[in-house]
Amino acid sequence: MNIKAYIKKVGSRAKEASAKIATATSDQKNIFLVKLAEILINHTDDIIEINKKDVGNAIKKNADDAFIDRLTFNFASIKLMADGLIKVSKLNDLIGQISNKKRMPSGIEVAQMRVPLGVIGMIYESRPNVTIDAAALAIKSGNSIILRGGSESIHTNNYLALLINESLIFANLPEAGVQIIENTDRAAVTEMITLTKFIDVIIPRGGKSLIHKITSEAKIPVIKHLDGNCHIYIDEYADIDQAITITDNAKTQRLGTCNTLESLVVNSKNAASFLPVLKKIFDAKFIEIRGCDRTKECIPGITSATDEDFYEEYLGPIISCKIVDSIEEAIHHINKYSSAHTESIITKNNDSATKFIREIDSSSVMINTSTRFADGFEYGLGAEIGISTDKFHARGPVGLEGLTSLKYIVFGSGQIRT
Questions:
Q1: Going edge to edge, which strands form the sheet with 119-124?
Q2: What pLDDT does 207 receive?
Q3: What is the CATH number of the domain that holds 14?
Q4: Which of 96, 235, 341, 352 is 20 to 30 A from 63 via CA?
């Protein structure tokens, strides 16, 4: 296969389709979403059976548990995808909305209109659920999308493409509105990220090497998601029981996600009452704590944390821990080592909470809750196409609004400029 010609053809079809999707009615878009949800449920057994091929291949290649977890479909995860599609169908259609209208001294009225980005190129690894979430959000926001999943999920993605295609036809939308790259050659990625004529934005989701390649080589704007080194700070004014429950949930509810707790920061006034209790819980769940010297004094026998540990996104049963003497020291530590994804403070003190949310420089900052809430479903976005750790054009979980832009609209009644 001539990869360059193939990607160019896909891009050309996506560009043509984007013009039709941009003017599609809300009913058409919602019909697509509801139909796709129905088809997913009706084909659950087939999806799981085909997904087993990808999972089996990953196991043969000795993929780790977190990788297998992200790759695997089951009845619950497929039902969750279908529910997400219904939620997206019920969201307000942003396209064409006019806002911020104001009359100027000249008599003209200036406003802004919400419009699609155009053609989205999505490059991702291991998570086949991204195929459904991305297709749903792209169509609902009036965009076409080109999806290039990893080779590890190729069988699942190709089957999902057939179901998406069937749903597009049912809604009288162009089939090229959602296209999946069937070739696993890495050259396809290189061609996509330089296809400036047809693709308007690239969204990568995957490991550091993938993100680095795309951000360094892309000639198209990138909405990127770096690693999720998420922190919780146990303030001196924390409720210890609440802190234990939240920390346990944030780390152990699911190990292999980008919003899983990876780094713990504890105020020294609470370390002796908090850390030994937490260690018993973590020992029972086979979670290893790697700590600073003061942490090791508080809970002897643990491994020393290196500087690299404080930067690490483990995606597994390990967590780093740092004891500090003040909230200022905690904020400095977090801002230094964080990947700017999600951080949370556990405190009963309003001043501490306010200082934390103002000074922590991350895309999501939380008070008295688990970092595991940092995703599009929990934020009311219906789904997400990714979590952006950038500051432009979107930040945090990227839903419908993050896949749109604004253009200025000017209303006149014969005015001329003098």
A1: 178-180, 144-148, 119-124, 201-205
A2: 75
A3: 3.40.605.10
A4: 341
Longest Cα–Cα distance of the chain, Å, equals 80
Task: Point out which residues pair with 267 in neighbouring strands.
Answer: 324
If asked whether residues 206 and 307 sit together in one domain, one would say no
Instruction: Report d(CA 119, CA 199) in Å as an integer.
Output: 5
Same domain for 166 and 20, yes or no, is yes
Same domain for 201 and 54:
yes
Length of the chain: 418
In whole angstroms, give the CA distance from residue 410 to residue 394: 25
8 Å CB contact between 362 and 383: no
pLDDT band for position 209 (cuts 50, 70, 90):
confident
Query: DSSP assignment, residue 360?
Result: -
Q: How many domains does the chain have?
A: 2
Would you report the helix, strand and coil content of the chain in percent, each value rounded to 5? 45, 20, 35
Q: Which residue has the higher pLDDT, 228 or 295?
A: 295
> What is the predicted pLDDT for the residue at 133?
93
Check residue 183 and give its pLDDT: 85
Write down the pLDDT at residue 59: 95
Q: Is the pLDDT of residue 64 over 90?
A: no
Q: Return the structure tokens found at 417.
A: 């400029």
Element (H, E) at 303: strand 303-304
Q: What DSSP string runs through 75-132?
A: HHHHHHHHHHHHHHHHS---TT-EEEEEE-TTS-EEEEEEEE--EEEEEE-S-THHHH
CA-closest candidate to residue 360, choices 382, 389, 338, 378: 338
Of all residues in the chain, what percent carry a pLDDT higher than 90?
84
Gap between the Cα atoms of 185 and 2, Å rounded: 11
Strands 318-324 vs 342-346: parallel, antiparallel or unpaired: unpaired
Query: Residue 211: pLDDT band by 50, 70, 90 thresholds?
Result: confident
Locus of tokens 């809604």: 171
Please tell me whether residues 237 and 207 are part of one structural domain. no
pLDDT tens digits for 12-60? 999 999 999 999 999 999 999 999 999 999 999 999 999 999 999 999 9
Statement to judge: residues 214 and 345 lie in one domain: no
247 in the same domain as 100: no
Residue 416 lies in a domain: no
One-letter amino acid of 126 = S
Domain that holds residue 35: 3-223+398-411
Question: Do 173 and 283 have their domain in common?
Answer: no
- Rounded to two decimals, what is the model's pTM? 0.84
